[in-house]
Amino acid sequence: MMSGSNSISPHRMPRFASTPGISVILHHVYFLRYQLMKIAICDDELSYLEETEKLVEQWADQRRIDVTIYRFSNGDDLIQAHQSYCMDLILLDIIMPLLNGMDTVRELRHDHQSVPVIFLTSSREYAVDSYEVKAFNYLMKPIKADRLFDTLDEFRETFLSAHEFFTAQTDTGFCRITLEDVDYLEAQNKRVLVSLSNDTVIEIRELFSKCEEIFRLEKGFFKCHRSYIVNLNHVEQFTKTEIRTKTGANIPISRNNYATFKEAYFSYMFR
User: Fold this and answer.
1) Distance from C-alpha of 89 to C-alpha of 155, rounded to nearest angstrom
2) What φ, ψ does residue 139 adopt, rounded to 5°?
3) Which helix (H) or strand (E) holds 65?
């Protein structure tokens, strides 16, 4: 394993995940898939870097998860590597020279990178700022194994959900769609229009009520209107009457659903 401020240090743990990315089922079609998890650790103090890496390895080993760990000692190298490797999770120290952890995440968010970040720090003063950049969690040093493991378990559930597939019938056959690619769903008569983040719209022959069973809040979706279900991760902004997604789509919110939507959105995004 390499170390140092100017190197990427991938560490592949050759094991298969015991919990596959469980696919959503429509029409009793199953898709099972193993996911390699790419985790970056960035800390300018070598002792903390090595300690955190060891804990992540222990966590992955106990849960038999296939993980690649990348080590960095500064935020600039992390940002450059993320552009090439697209990390699934970043464990990031805040107090670092030159580009600190908080500014590193701001740079990532500026480039529309929604990668989950767990801050590791010896100071509580950045806790409020961590909400601003939508951090997944904020852990105090020295890192306690059980606290880190619980946080990584929470992330794993999100990670697996993001890689879930569903398959549905169309006029020409069947199609398979990844949940994280879904921007929103719209009910039209006895069919459903599935709008994706790449501006593609797929018409599926499925009851909206069936989709409600699949696109639930714990999966990151919310039924904001009797005819619409929106992906909370794709929400750009919202008012009392409308949601704008990152694709520019405008989704109505029912008057009776606004308060519930607002609570669900902030609870989910800052969980």
Assistant:
1) 8
2) -115, 140
3) none
